[in-house]
Amino acid sequence: MSHDLRELPLRERKKLRTRRALAETALRLFTERGYDTTTLDDLCDAVEVSKRTFFRNYRSKEDVALAADSELWSAYLDRVAAVRLDGPLLGVLRVALEATLEAMEPDWDRRFLATRELSESVPVLQSHGLGYCQDTTRDIVETLAGRAGADTEADALRLRLTVEIFVAAWHTVCLHWTAQGGRGGRDGLTHLVEQTFTLIPDALTRTA
């Protein structure tokens, strides 16, 4: 989510600058030198921070490589927790996603594309990304469960299925946008979100 550094206390400004520097530098080094051949020591030396500082900001090399993903979903979960649940839930989730995309940092879509391209070529990042996706899906369900009327087993299954469809649609959007080389930037990504979600009813009733 976009942050105006001037509105934050000095300590928080420094911490956010360090996180941004680590994520930006990691993405550059991993892309230029290769993920496997770039060590955490290389990254910390480039940013001029200690490993202790690194681990105060990120849990692992995989986490910093996928920072653009975690930034999006952290902001999204905050938005979903506060959004008014009115109307079809899938539509609420889509609108919240579009609003979150719009509020991300100005260069977020560039970093997100580079992250997607990097992860597609590095198996360990693909695996880490799948695990993160599962965790995020669970977090979305838990965030909604107390507010979306999931009192019965059928309600809980319906809620989980709705969130899974939402996540699958987003995954489809990302695959297509990345394959296009990030065509249209953030506007192109948002347009694909709208287009893909519009196609869900037809996809569910499509015959073999």
Describe the structure.
The radius of gyration is 18 Å and the shape is globular. It has 208 residues and is mostly helical. The protein folds into 2 domains: 1-59, Arc Repressor Mutant, subunit A (Orthogonal Bundle); 66-205, Tetracycline Repressor, domain 2. The longest helix is centred in the last third of the chain and has 27 residues, at 153-179. The model has no long low-confidence stretch (mean pLDDT 92). It is 76% helix and 0% strand. α7 (108-121) packs across α8.
Question: Topology, please?
Answer:
Blueprint: H1 10-33, H2 40-47, H3 51-57, H4 61-65, H5 67-82, H6 89-103, H7 108-121, H8 123-145, H9 153-179, H10 185-198, H11 200-205
- Count up the helices: 11
Reading off the top of the CATH hierarchy, the class of the largest domain is best stated as Mainly Alpha
Order of helices and strands: HHHHHHHHHHH
* SS strand fraction: under 5%
Strand segment count: 0
The CATH architecture classification of the largest domain is: Orthogonal Bundle
Provide the CATH topology of the largest domain: Tetracycline Repressor, domain 2
Q: What is the number of domains? A: 2
Q: Mean of the pLDDT scores? A: 92
Shape: globular
Largest sheet: none
